[in-house]
Write a structure and sequence with these properties.
- With about 260 residues, this protein is α/β, with parallel strands linked by helices.
- The chain has a single domain, classed as Aldolase class I (TIM Barrel).
- The chain has an eight-stranded parallel beta barrel, surrounded by six helices.
- Helix 1 crosses helix 12, helix 7 crosses helix 9 and helix 11 packs parallel to helix 12.
- The relative contact order is 0.15.
- Bound molecules: phosphoenolpyruvate.
- The site of phosphoenolpyruvate (PEP) has 13 residues, from strand 8.
- Phosphoenolpyruvate binds next to strand 8.
Length: about 260
Amino acid sequence: MPVRRKIIAGNWKMNKTATESQILVADLLEKLNKFDGAEVVICPPFTSLVSCQQALGKHTEIDLGAQNMHQETSGAYTGEISAAMLKDLFVRFVILGHSERRQYFGETDEIVNQKAHTAIKARLRPILCVGETLSEREAGKMAQVVTKQVQASCAGFTEDDWSVSVIAYEPVWAIGTGKTATPEQAQEVHALIRATVEKMAGKAISDKLRIQYGGSVKPDNARLLLNQPDIDGALVGGASLDAESFVAIIKNACQKEEIS
Ligand code: PEP
């Protein structure tokens, strides 16, 4: 069984000016204190990428990610940002298909899939978000919805494409609501996602794929969630805006569960 290095990413959403971002990065670096027990990614707004990069300087314990990009490589798409533009700012990861993009900006699995292929061609690593709404869960459709999202968002992936990709399971009902999936609920869906990828691409690939959980992850629930066998990291929204709580999540996530 390959060892999957934990990956904790902070999605800052539409928060923090460029100046505020720089302060947060400095605070994170100080509190992380060279901790390298997990891969750590911050995804500030586009307008903060440069100031974050400057604040990171030569530090390698935090990688830079973006929250979105356009599926086309360039052209007449007013207000949009391309993969090459991100790459040029030393961005390594890009969140694609976040439920807020799907809900407010009409992103479909097909668009997410196009974006993923464009990102990978530009040597960006996609963090592909999937997850059911509360009504879908209550209607007993969680497995169907999540399986379809994984199949459609990752359609046409080669072995190399899988090797640079991360999937984030984010139940929509748990995002920004303070409701967290229990470790058992999350593990069930993560195992389902891994089994779906195994059917698409084979066991060697699915064993290596990192699957993050996202949805109201906080310092006090991170350890139990991330001790589940198929949970390989977290995508953190609200709690990533505060250096103390984000660093506590990162450190807690890397602790083994104590067996009493
Ligand atoms: C997110 O936006 O990806 C997220 C999980 O948000 P929160 O942690 O605030 O629920």
